[in-house]
Amino acid sequence: RIGIAMTAHLWLPYTQMQTAAAPLRAARTAGARIILDDGRELIDAVSSWWTACHGYNHPHIVMAMERQLHTMPHVMFGGLVHEPAETLAARLAVMLPGPLNRVFFADSGSVAVEVAMKMAIQYRINRGETGRTRFLSFRDGYHGDTMAAMSVTDPDEGMHALFRGYLPEQVIAPLPRDDASAGEFRRLLDAHKREIAAIIVEPLVQGAGGMKMHDPAVLKTIADSAKEAGVLLICDEIAVNFGRTGTLFAHTQAGIAPDIICLGKALTGGAINLAATVATADVFDAFLSDAADAALMHGPTYMASPLACAAANASLDLFDTEPRLQQVAAIEAQLKHELAPLGNIPGVVDIRVKGAIGAVEVTNLHDLDWLKAQFIDAGIWLRPFGNVIYTMPPFTITSAELSAITGAIADILPRWAARKA
Ligand code: PLP
């Protein structure tokens, strides 16, 4: 009863509150599992919105946070810096390839994207180039829920029609996957390059837009075209950073050199919110001036929170001390093997695997609530959306737990298909 009263005051994300079923109540987390307050245990197939790459409650992260909690949970970042942030920035600068070495911390992925966009526009202004205030982004892309981030998200996903007149109008191109789409991308870039501050792209996997995957060659085409056209390249790695696609950062598989990169989600191993926008020396240098208004005018209240930086530093330790990338390779092999047979189920149109991401695309994801309930009954926390049933498990998931996820998909999908749209 108390529980019902509490939920009555919450406004839930992406939820039609009039018709939605009551949400489940989580009580604890452990390893790859979420334990509900009625005692049921669910294997988390989606790592809490793709964050919990080491599983939940990893003792190394918990201990680092406990230590930080007693020393200094938070302090403002204006006029003050601290060791956890300095260490984290220095480590990220070493881990990231090339001259990506200036780290601006934010408190969420969407804000990191906003900061990247602001940087790109002001980079132009500071260099005396006027009129370059637009972005080229891609269909099926997703960059967050704040307004500027929505404007570079796919027009449907970003609800451009609903918010028309309020969102800045960007140039939205197809990913250059084949001759026709490459031609369209180049035509749009050429037509608008003098108004464009930067191209923004999710490297290798467009996550929230439907787990759409592309070859490194596609990314290379984008990066080469950006260079040719003289526009900056922003890689939004928030969904895929820290090993998800098999390498620590996805864009390195294409051997490209972005000007700005956005990090988030798994940056703290899923323990607490933190994001970062990392720029090259070239971008940073454009903000150095005698003029005060050439500075980057941004500063989220909780930016670089010491508690979050301590969690992120501990998460980075785990990439050194535990075999994360080998685990991702093993997950990739297992997903390929166990998802392949599902191609025969009526309604399944594509099966895609990249690193620790497995997606089964169907023609029409009908009966979504029924589908979600079936997975919960099977002990799996899995959130189909768009037309995809996908998993992005913690890298520490056991092979038996992963088989439980793919087994549940294999069991439930034929029954779902039999229900018809
Ligand atoms: N960029 C990408 C690629 C994302 O997948 C997301 C979240 O799903 C975001 C940005 C926004 O991050 P946040 O939800 O932390 O604001």
Question: What does this molecule look like?
Answer:
The chain has 421 residues and is α/β, with parallel strands linked by helices. 37% of the residues lie in helices and 17% in strands. The protein is built from 13 helices and 16 strands. The protein has helices at residues 2-7, 47-50, 59-71, 83-95, 109-126, 147-151, 179-192, 216-229, 281-285, 306-321, 324-339, 368-377, 399-419, and strands at 26-30, 33-36, 41-44, 100-106, 134-138, 171-173, 196-201, 205-206, 212-213, 232-236, 260-263, 275-280, 348-354, 357-362, 380-381, 388-391. The chain has a seven-stranded mixed sheet, with helices on both faces. Strands 1-2-3-15 form a four-stranded mixed sheet. Helix 7 packs parallel to helix 8, helix 11 (324-339) packs parallel to helix 13 and helix 12 (368-377) packs antiparallel against helix 13. The chain is globular, with a radius of gyration of 22 Å. The model has no long low-confidence stretch (mean pLDDT 96). Bound molecules: pyridoxal-5'-phosphate. Pyridoxal-5'-phosphate binds at residues 108-110, 113, 142-144, 202, 207-208, 236, 238-239, 264.
Note the main attributes of this structure.
4-stranded mixed sheet; globular; binds pyridoxal-5'-phosphate
